[in-house]
Amino acid sequence: MRKLYIIGIGSGNPEHITVQAIKALNDVDVFFVLNKGSSKSDLIRLRKEICERYIDDPSYRTIEVVDPQRDPSIASYSLRVQAWHQERAVIYEDLIGRELKDDECGAFLVWGDPSLYDSTLRVIDHIIARGIVHFDHEVIPGITSIQALAARHKITLNGIGESICITTGRQLTPGLVASSENVVVMLDGKCSFREVLDQDVEIYWGAYVGSDKEILLSGRLTEKLETIEVARSAAREKNGWVMDTYLLRNPSARRS
Ligand SMILES: C[S@@+](CC[C@H](N)C(=O)[O-])C[C@H]1O[C@@H](n2cnc3c(N)ncnc32)[C@H](O)[C@@H]1O
């Protein structure tokens, strides 16, 4: 039976890979790499570096596929993403069927951890449901960008007994921050923290966390937001892409 590993590789630091991931990497015959365009080539480079560094026998194969574009003619965001996942499923299914022999092992290397804002497992579920190619699969956890951010700022994400809300820039509202002690924001292309004007809120922000391009900034949100915006846009200009994550901590939302 074919085997497929979905391996979390951490979010930018090749030393964040786990021993379990290294063992799985060494079992793999074929790596499937999704190419998301030239501006994200740093992300492909990290995957290559991980393979070269941790795999003893370099006889593995790497197959690169171009990521399909989302169809802009589908108005609903969730339907657009679902259609895109289906399209990815067909591409992966074809690759698995064509490139992986019955006794071979393939892998998708997933940025951070596969459980957090990543569609690989959903796409794998679509392939299984289609029933055309058959394989066993195993998920190997990785260090998320949230864990890396907290470690680099030397903070806990929550105060004692508090909750943490993890969301996207699209979903961040002043009301959410007013009612949540700790909000972690990912996938924010628009510096949505600008909408939060509460004087008490603190921000712990990081871009390219864990990598050699890392930028960390923290402090009272109202005092730091401009510095963060400038740093983010300069970094994006310089590198062609940016990935940032931040924690908003609101002490006035705390319940006694
Ligand atoms: C598609 S999600 C993938 C998340 C990933 N699965 C994880 O476990 O962190 C991409 C988002 O993760 C965050 N991210 C990933 N790597 C990062 C890094 N090195 N530094 C800061 N944020 C990062 C950003 O918010 C980015 O928009």
Explain what this protein looks like in three dimensions.
The protein is of the alpha/beta class. The protein has 2 domains: 3-143, Cobalt-precorrin-4 Transmethylase, domain 1; 146-253, Tetrapyrrole methylase, C-terminal domain (Methyltransferase, Cobalt-precorrin-4 Transmethylase, Domain 2, 2-Layer Sandwich). It is built from 7 helices and 10 strands. The chain has a 5-stranded parallel beta sheet with strand order 3-2-4-1-5, with helices on both faces. Strands 6-7-10-8-9 form a 5-stranded mixed beta sheet, with helices on both faces. The radius of gyration is 20 Å and the shape is globular. The mean pLDDT is 92. The structure holds S-adenosylmethionine. S-adenosylmethionine is lined by residues 11-12, 111-113, 116-118, 144-145, 186-187, 206-211, 243-245.
Task: Draw up the topology in text.
Layout: E1 3-8, H1 19-25, E2 30-35, H2 41-54, E3 61-66, H3 77-99, E4 105-110, H4 120-130, E5 136-140, H5 145-153, E6 165-168, H6 174-179, E7 182-186, E8 202-207, E9 215-220, H7 221-239, E10 244-249
The structure holds S-adenosylmethionine.
